[in-house]
Design a protein that fits this description.
Strand content of chain A: 15-25%
Number of strands of chain A: 29
Keywords (chain A): Molybdenum, Oxidoreductase
Oligomer: heterodimer
CATH class of the largest domain in chain B: Alpha Beta
Low-confidence stretches of chain B: none
Shape of chain A: globular
CATH superfamily of one domain in chain A: Aldehyde oxidase/xanthine dehydrogenase, molybdopterin binding domain
Cofactor (chain A): Mo-molybdopterin cytosine dinucleotide
Shape of chain B: globular
GO molecular function (chain A): iron ion binding; oxidoreductase activity
CATH topology of one domain in chain A: Aldehyde Oxidoreductase, domain 4
Number of strands of chain B: 5
Number of helices of chain A: 21
Number of domains of chain B: 2
Largest sheet of chain B: 5 strands, mixed
Strand order of the largest sheet of chain A: 3-5-1-12-9-10-11
Helix content of chain B: 25-40%
CATH architecture of one domain in chain A: 2-Layer Sandwich
CATH superfamily of the largest domain in chain B: Beta-grasp domain
Number of helices of chain B: 5
Pfam families (chain A): Ald_Xan_dh_C, MoCoBD_1, MoCoBD_2
Mean pLDDT of chain B: 94
Strand order of the largest sheet of chain B: 2-1-5-3-4
Protein name (chain A): Xanthine dehydrogenase family protein molybdopterin-binding subunit
């Protein structure tokens, strides 16, 4: 359902199935591990079994002697060629940046840090060789978690630092102290989101071919950011960007995890250079838990001040980002974003928001869909419900009265972001009426009468998308840009090819781009081919495919480019038809005089005139070919939003939470493809429910991860996830041609706090407050027992 | 580790004979020796289900099966589902109902759903969720997949599909 007027479109806004689906459904598509290149050999990485130690000896001689082994390298071999792994985000002024090489040289600082690598005839032999490498470790004191890292007598990860704090910063708006002093009500809590990760079902991988004779590095890489990867390979390996080619195959899920630039690409490149063979290096599932970006891991100690009438006066607190033993590609970026979004959709005039980024002996922190915002959402959504309870107000009405009104947009949040447009109260109403319509309130009443603990959770979220204006991103600490570039080309046969620096990880980039081109030009969608994933032929994109950029920025560039290309096609058509371009229309691949369909030419005629038979057909004023390039650097980011509602049942005996039903009223501006949009929302919510209830990297006191398999790290299956119902309203993004806002991260942002809201509601008679995620059965049982024995939980 | 065994398997109607070490998994044999890369590996410890194939008509995890165990067997993989140049009913339904995003779990999901519909042609939504719960999808939230399997059952029941072929 939509609250905007239906537009007369042929492709845009329509539920077009994925154009890549047939090959994905038949096993004929090509993912990373499906690629074999001539002369290829395979690698494997030996990883540290301990969290903090000095390497006193490595002996690789036995591994080298194993038949089938081509090369074995250690950190000392690697540093002869490669520099340190790059960091691109520096949001905290004067932050201490702990960098590491792709393989450890003298000290390991997390379980799973690479210490040596092998290239062999195949992966089986490479893993045999790993077992023959001898390493002696001299144990160092382990900083296993945040609390240990912050303790006054804590062992230090870096001896020359005063403590384990990498950096801290405070953002302020108004006067928070004064606001809290004059408040009638203050609510606060310590919120903890434990670590988890993006966990695409396809793990990461690459094939590196570094040919010293041509000086070229040719890489197949399962990445969301091929242009960024090329830049960073150049930086780390001291190669010219022009000598590096990065191609991406089909990507089996990315979720931000495959945005980051990992050691394995560099390790494979070094192995290739030395062995003079292309080297494939894949991460297996067990490795992924220690080698792919760890995410979410944060604590937020925050409080909110309100007047007795419900007006929010202030927000203040400290957020702790639990960084690892070295910084990952995005540094403290996600924890920073959690702080920037901690006020959410509410007008809060006085803010004092502190971020502390803290090093621990855990794997490096990195990107995961939502990128910090899910934890900002926990802060504002949990606090507003605590406030509603304390004030005795409706949690719906308290939200509504603190929203900016539609005419207050663009609305400055108080910390960095300016929200572009919004009808927040309408969206809230859409959700609450859907809850009523679906009979949840009645279900809850009946359930409770029957002794069941049924709860309804609510959450309102904002999603910053279309990251972002390049110069602003530079100013806040990004060593990269945010623009996007696209080529739209009609060929000599009148068919269209779009080339983009974005890539598709299943979210439907190719399909939505084809829809926009078909709509913008007036050609059948079957005539559009989308090409991505090759830095040698595709244009440059700032950043990569992350930050909800693909539909917004790539889409905007396509809208611009197709507009100009269509004008040229019509001018050529006018020459052929001896008509005025103003009188022409382009529909279904034919240019015709409006109202006189018999007077027409096809796009094939136009293509022939622009590429081959120019004489007498192409106007003298036109250059040959049919190609438009557009570079789009947005003036502002987009802010989409939604109200999510979740129906749950809690089993008070076991602490298990059953998700019964879920709905979301969503506004991401103009929707290109409702089928794919709903798929993004549902998939994101399912991931968040995993993070809210099941998924956790559990560490012991030695910094060992106890959950390094799918037997222990539980991602939701079909029986864990409820049905979904989506309701849309469309408030266009004012500065994005096409009006689209980002939506790929909506579900992950919305879905964690709403689990807490629903559980609280199911146990409202006990006064339980969920502040910790995942809320596993043992944790919930503990809350229930504490509440039953009369211990207040807030 | 040079103890090689010669095995013969019939995959999607084609006979393959090749040598392999005793430790080679069926998944690796299919992918490396037969060139059938449609069968995917997501965990290699039997949980994610992406590698599900039919071994003598029964769905198995090919990452937990050694190739030598399959000697003489009839195997069906995702590459064997389409009918000539056309997607089969279940595949079409997955496309129409957005039952896939990245496509990585999809081969396992299709094999699992094929077996489910063969054993229970008229499943309820709950039965579909239970039936596919052994294959993990990280993209879709299962909504589109459940819809796809239900719709495939409907269209076969309604005779919309000429061949009615699910397996």
């Amino acid at each position: 359902m939509t609250t905007t007027e239906p537009q007369s479109t042929k492709y845009a806004g329509k539920p077009q199935p994925g154009i890549d689906d047939p090959s994905l459904l038949t096993g004929s598509s090509t993912y990373m591990d499906d690629i074999t290149v001539p002369r290829m050999i395979e690698g494997a990485v030996l990883r540290s079994p301990v969290a903090h130690a000095r390497i006193t000896r490595i002996d690789v001689s036995k591994a080298r002697e194993l038949p089938g082994v081509f090369d074995v390298i250690t950190g000392n071999d690697l540093v002869e060629i490669a520099g340190e792994q790059p960091v691109i985000w520096y949001p905290i002024p004067e932050q201490r940046i702990a960098r590491a090489h792709a393989l450890a040289t003298d000290t390991v600082r997390w379980v799973g840090q690479g210490v040596a690598a092998v290239a062999a005839v195949d992966r089986y032999v490479a893993e045999d060789a790993l077992e023959l490498i001898e390493v002696d470790y001299e144990p160092l004191p382990v900083v296993a978690d945040l609390e240990q890292a912050l303790a006054p007598d804590a062992p230090k990860l870096y001896e020359d630092w005063p403590d384990n704090v990498s950096g801290s910063m405070t953002l302020t708006a108004g006067d928070a102290d004064a606001a809290f002093a004059e408040a009638d009500v203050v609510v606060g809590a310590s919120f903890r989101h434990h670590p988890g990760y993006g966990c695409p079902i396809e793990t990461r991988g690459c094939i590196s071919n570094w040919d010293v004779f041509s000086g070229r590095l040719d890489v197949w890489l399962g990445t969301q950011s091929p242009n960024l990867a090329r830049e960073l390979f150049a930086q780390v390996l001291s190669l010219p960007v022009s000598k590096i080619r990065v191609r991406t195959p089909e990507i089996g899920g990315g979720f931000g995890l495959k945005f980051d630039f990992y050691p394995e690409g560099v390790i494979a490149a070094i192995l290739s250079r030395r062995s003079k063979r292309p080297v494939k290096l894949l991460e297996d599932r067990q490795e992924s838990f220690v080698a792919s970006s760890r995410s979410r891991d944060m604590r937020h100690d925050f409080e909110m001040a309100l007047r007795s009438d419900g007006t929010i006066l202030g927000l203040r607190g400290t957020a702790y980002g639990v960084l690892g033993g070295a910084l990952g590609t995005v540094g403290a970026g996600p924890p920073w974003a959690s702080v920037l979004t901690s006020m959410g959709p509410y007008k809060i005039p006085n803010q004092e928001l502190t971020l502390k980024a803290v090093m621990t002996n855990r794997s490096p922190y990195g990107s995961y869909r939502g990128w910090g915002v899910p934890k900002g959402n926990i802060v504002h959504e949990r606090l507003i419900e605590l406030a509603a309870r304390k004030l005795g107000m409706s949690r719906i009405e308290l939200r509504r009265m603190n929203f900016p009104a539609p005419d207050e947009f663009p609305y400055f949040s108080g910390a960095a972001f300016t929200f572009d447009s919004g009808r927040y109260a309408d969206c809230l109403d859409l959700a609450t009426s859907a809850v009523e319509e679906r009979g949840w309130n009645e279900l809850q009443r009946e359930g409770r009468e029957a002794g069941r603990s049924i709860g309804i959770g609510y959450g309102f979220h904002i999603e910053p998308g279309a990251y972002g204006p390049s110069r602003v991103l530079n100013m806040v600490g990004l060593d990269h840009s945010g623009f996007d570039e696209v080529y739209v080309r009609m060929d000599s046969a009148g068919k269209v090819t779009v080339l983009s620096g974005q890539i598709s990880t299943g979210q439907g980039t190719h399909t939505t781009y084809a829809q926009l081109v078909a709509e913008g030009l007036g050609v059948p969608i079957e005539d559009v081919t989308v090409v991505t994933g090759d830095t040698e032929s595709c244009p440059y994109t700032g950043y990569g495919t992350g930050g909800s950029r693909a539909a917004t920025l790539g889409g905007a560039a396509i809208v611009n480019a197709t507009g100009r290309l269509k004008a040229k096609i019509l001018r050529i058509g006018a020459e052929l038809l001896e008509a005025d371009p103003e009188d022409l229309e382009l529909d279904n691949g034919r240019v015709s005089v409006r109202g006189a369909a018999d007077s027409s030419v096809s796009t094939a005629d136009i293509g022939y005139s622009a590429y081959r038979m120019l004489n007498g057909r192409l106007p003298e004023s036109e250059t040959p070919t049919l190609e438009e390039v557009d570079v789009f650097d947005p003036a502002n980011m987009t802010t989409s939003y939604a109200c999510t509602a979740l129906l749950v049942e809690v089993d008070r005996q076991t602490g298990a939470v059953k998700l019964l039903d879920c709905l979301q009223a969503h506004d991401a501006g103009v929707i290109i493809n409702p089928l794919l949009a709903d798929g993004q929302l549902a998939g994101g919510l399912a991931q968040a429910f995993g993070g809210g209830l099941f998924e956790e990297f559990v560490y012991d006191d030695d910094g060992q991860i106890r959950t390094a398999s799918f037997m222990d790290y539980l991602i939701p299956s079909a029986t864990d996830i409820p049905p979904f119902h989506f309701y849309h309203q469309e408030t266009p993004a004012p500065h994005i041609p096409g009006g689209m806002k980002g939506l790929g991260e909506a579900g992950t942002i919305a879905g964690v706090s709403v689990v807490g809201s629903a559980i609280d509601d199911a146990l409202s008679d006990l006064g339980v407050t969920v502040c910790e995620f995942p809320m596993t059965p043992p944790r919930l049982l503990e809350l229930i027992r504490a509440a039953q024995s009369g211990e207040a939980t807030t | 580790m040079s103890d090689k065994h010669t095995i013969t398997v019939t995959v999607n109607g084609h006979v393959y004979t090749d040598d392999c070490e005793a430790r080679m998994t069926l998944a690796d044999f299919l992918r490396r020796q037969c060139g059938l890369t449609g069968t995917h590996l997501g965990c290699e410890h039997g949980v994610c289900g992406a590698c599900t194939v039919f071994l003598d008509d029964v769905a198995v995890r090919s990452c937990l099966t050694f190739a030598v165990q399959a000697d003489g067997a009839r195997i069906k993989t995702v590459e064997g589902l389409a009918e000539g140049d056309e997607l089969n009913t279940l595949q079409k339904s997955f496309q129409e109902n957005h039952g896939l995003q990245c496509g990585f779990c999809t081969p396992g999901m299709l094999m699992c759903a094929t077996e489910l519909l063969r054993e229970n042609p008229n499943p309820t939504e709950t039965e579909v969720r239970e039936g596919i719960s052994g294959v993990l999808c990280r993209c879709t939230g299962y909504d589109g997949i459940v819809r796809s399997v239900m719709a495939a059952a409907d269209s076969r029941r309604d005779g919309v599909s000429e061949s009615g072929s699910i397996s």
